[in-house]
Amino acid sequence: MVEASGLKPGVVVMLEGELHSVATAGYHAGGGQQGSAVFARVKNLKTGHIRELRLHPSDRLEEIALDHKEMEYLYTDGVAFYFMDPDTFEQISLPSEIIGAYEKFLQPNMRIPVALYEGEPVNIAFPQAIELSVVSAPPGVHEHATSTFKPATLENGMEVLVPQFIKEGDTVRIEVASGKYVERIRRETRKP
């Protein structure tokens, strides 16, 4: 059990018999006749529906510990996304509502931690940032300018704004939540 005042983003709780992941949680001290409260936004892991809750700080919620298993992404049929356990070759599917915006970042054979509750898949634990190769980028206006950005197309077909020095073939790190450029990945080159 976890008290409402201890809720943090990423915590999974059981509400009305369904798993919910805490997206945001904030404590409001209150004043006058209004008591203190915890405001939380939670996402239903089955339906993807987001709810807003107002809880008393001492309210207790059932915290659920999920198991994580690294699985390999195989394909999607438009309705579900299919993953395979690389150890047992067992395949599982997750509905597209659960994958949501992460869909554009999934690539075949990519290994992703899948969250399991009592052996059943409920969500994916997608990384904060992902590395992708630049497929096309126009030449930079000023080679060393970093304050201006230009559009670049990545290997997954996504278009992002990158600094002027990024060129085709570079690998960049993209923040998954916002879809924005974070940094260029430098590959170590050794001289013989």
UniProtKB/TrEMBL annotation:
SUPFAM superfamilies: Nucleic acid-binding proteins, Translation proteins SH3-like domain. PROSITE patterns: EFP. Keywords: Elongation factor, Protein biosynthesis. Signal peptide: none annotated. GO terms for molecular function: translation elongation factor activity. Residues 68-122 form the Translation elongation factor P/YeiP central domain. InterPro entries: Elong-fact-P_C (IPR015365), NA-bd_OB-fold (IPR012340), Rib_uL2_dom2 (IPR014722), Transl_elong_fac_P/YeiP (IPR020599), Transl_elong_KOW-like (IPR013185), Transl_elong_P/YeiP_cen (IPR001059), Transl_elong_P/YeiP_CS (IPR013852), Translation_prot_SH3-like_sf (IPR008991). Residues 130-184 form the Elongation factor P C-terminal domain. Belongs to the elongation factor P family. PANTHER family: ELONGATION FACTOR P, TRANSLATION ELONGATION FACTOR KOW-LIKE DOMAIN-CONTAINING PROTEIN. This is Elongation factor P. It comes from Paraburkholderia denitrificans.
